[in-house]
Amino acid sequence: MRIVNIVGARPNFMKMAPLLREMRRHPEIAATLVHTGQHYDDRMAGQFFRDLDLAHPDISLDVGSGSHAYQTAEVMKRLEPVLERIRPHVVVVVGDVNSTLAGAVTAAKLCIPVAHVEAGLRSFDRAMPEEINRLLTDAISEYLFVTEESGRENLLREGVDSRKIHLVGNVMIDSLEQCRPVWERSDVVTRLGLAQGDYGVVTLHRPSNVDDPAILRGLVKALAEIGRRLPLVFPVHPRTRSRLEAMDIGSEWGRANARWVEPLGYLDFVGLVARSRLVLTDSGGLQEETTALGIPCLTLREQTERPITVTQGTNRIVGTSPDRIVSEATRVLAEPRLQVARPPLWDGRAADRIVAILRGAPPADAERTDVADAG
Ligand code: UD1
């Protein structure tokens, strides 16, 4: 069974690592890893391959940065001959980045079945590029592997055949658990001069937050205010760094106990988050990781496509108004640490379930929608 697996950007790598590991345990699967090159800097890509022990890509498409259309089109152009040559039985795409959509469209047009891992999530905000990628990828996928119940409901509402939908858990949490012994040993907290349990972690990279100077300025103001009470560390995404450097906000940061650092690798980053008091972010994956780790998370957006992190996890959606962000952070800091249960099937075994289904041997605990709905 030939399977082509596609990765492109930072959050794809931790989703793919457990899948590839599981595929390679089965001799009848010939798994090929294609890296589109959407992310190419060592700190955005290479470091993640090393941290996750992810095999060197079999094929690199080297597309690099560009507009959405450019990036998507370049992946499609360069991937098509690869798929024509390998003629896989299935193409696996993960998450919601431009490489996900490009991989799915290229495969579907060659009549190769697409498996989408992390299907069904919806922010209902079509101004987010990821929402367009999610909608279109799901519409042309044959296997829709969902992480939470909302994903199944969204797909059913959109008319997807229930036999294609499988609630399997979360491969991001597989990586978190498989790497736990290593990230628990990370010395990142002392290296950054922080005290365990007494600092906050910030990440920002959504275009809606960082491309609008008025919003970014408000976020910086709120973070500077919070930084007076709790030291903050901010691994800055390249997109955000270029926007911050273009704005004259050095003095605002200068007064605050909020430090910018270069983007961290996976193991250092999870090690940092796991020992923090609070996370402030606009990332999707981090809402899930903080839920699994029991770390309070304030999401600096107006909505989330991962509602289970709010209903069963540690996440609060607080928007981008500086006053609200500061008051919510103040509230979290006054509260005792939360004890939360993990969402169903976020147990580190999602990749086993997915590969079993792709092999045509569903494990007993993977929930098939048609079976679940029959009653
Ligand atoms: C992409 C994904 C987003 C994901 C994020 C994680 C899409 C539409 N967006 O956003 O869903 O959450 O990755 O980081 O696919 N750059 C570098 N080095 C790199 C890669 C990018 O410096 O290795 C800079 C370039 O200036 C580039 C910019 O970052 O133009 C944006 O990169 P891009 O891949 O277009 O989008 P992200 O903002 O990273």
Number of helices: 19
Give every kind of bound small molecule, once each. Answer: uridine-diphosphate-N-acetylglucosamine
The biggest sheet, with number of strands, parallel, antiparallel or mixed sense and barrel status, is: 8 strands, mixed
Report the uncertain regions: 369-375
Descriptive terms for the model:
375 residues, alpha/beta, 8-stranded mixed sheet, 14% strand, globular, disordered C terminus
Describe the structure.
There is one protein chain. Helices cover 47% and strands 14% of the residues. The protein has helices at residues 10-23, 42-51, 68-86, 98-109, 129-139, 149-157, 171-178, 180-183, 188-191, 207-210, 213-227, 238-246, 250-255, 266-274, 285-293, 308-311, 322-334, 350-358, 369-374; strands at 2-7, 30-35, 59-60, 90-94, 114-117, 143-146, 165-167, 200-203, 232-235, 258-261, 278-281, 297-299, 315-317, 367-368. Helix 1 runs parallel beside helix 2, helix 3 (68-86) packs across helix 4 and helix 4 (98-109) packs parallel to helix 5 (129-139). It is globular and about 60 Å long. The strands form two sheets. It has an eight-stranded mixed sheet, sandwiched between helices. Strands 10-9-8-11-12-13 form a six-stranded parallel sheet, with helices on both faces. The model is unreliable at 369-375 (pLDDT under 50). Strand 11, helix 15 (285-293) and strand 12 (297-299) form a beta-alpha-beta unit. The protein contains 19 helices and 14 strands. By secondary structure, it is of the alpha/beta class. The two termini are 34 Å apart.
